[in-house]
Amino acid sequence: MTCGNRRRRRRRRYGRDRSSESGFCCRIRHWARNDFAITSMAQTLGYVALVVRDYDEALAFFTQSLGFTVVEDSLAKDRNGQEKRWVLVRPPGSHGTDLLLARASTPEESSRIGNQTGGRVFLFLHTDDFWRDYRAMTARGVRFRRAPREETYGTVAVFEDLYGNLWDLLELKKPVSNAGSAESQASSQKQLTSPLLPLLFPLPRFPPSRWHPRGSRRGNSRRAPC
User: Fold this and answer.
1) Looking at residue 64, what DSSP letter applies?
2) Would the N or C end of the chain have less CB density within 10 A of its end CB?
3) What Rg, from alpha-carbon coordinates, does the chain have?
4) Residue 24, CA distances (Å) to 30, 63, 120 in order
5) Which letter does DSSP use for residue 178 in this model?
6) Which residues are paired to 166 by β-bridges?
7) How much is the pLDDT for 139?
8) What confidence tens digit (pLDDT) does each residue in 89-111 have?
């Protein structure tokens, strides 16, 4: 009778908690095996619109003064059903975002020409050789509003386009190469996360055994038949 009562008490005390903890730990371990991976989406920034007064004068500036290439120049319809041109230009050697030259069609759009960001730098033109492009753009008549300067992130100068929008001509500093940087970062991350695993995913604890030999005080080592 005593052994049966003890067994029932253990089931009432640990049964539900152990089952629920096991289910929770199983779900957590499943997430941990997947490294908390979330399905990633492939997204890119396709175009950035620049409001212009006229397509041809804008094309002349970007292709002749800045050396951009024309990606597309085709006819299309605007939201009012009127004909427009779909004009895309791209910096030389670029495989990223294209610049969409959008002609203003309303007085409100016309008021934004040359001031799309309220006087702040609007676009950032990255280059692999700052002084090469700076000298070439200066020779082609591009006006620089701020002189070149060295910053912690690279060499930069501010110029304006034909409408007055501000651009950064920027050459970023190359990061210092370190062959063992990836391995050191991985090892340090492992050292930081490994002590936390027992706290995040504790194993279920089972009650310690409470069986005692019957009549141990009398020297009898035979266990109770429960």
Assistant:
1) I
2) N
3) 35
4) 10, 62, 52
5) -
6) 121, 160
7) 97
8) 999 999 889 999 999 999 999 99
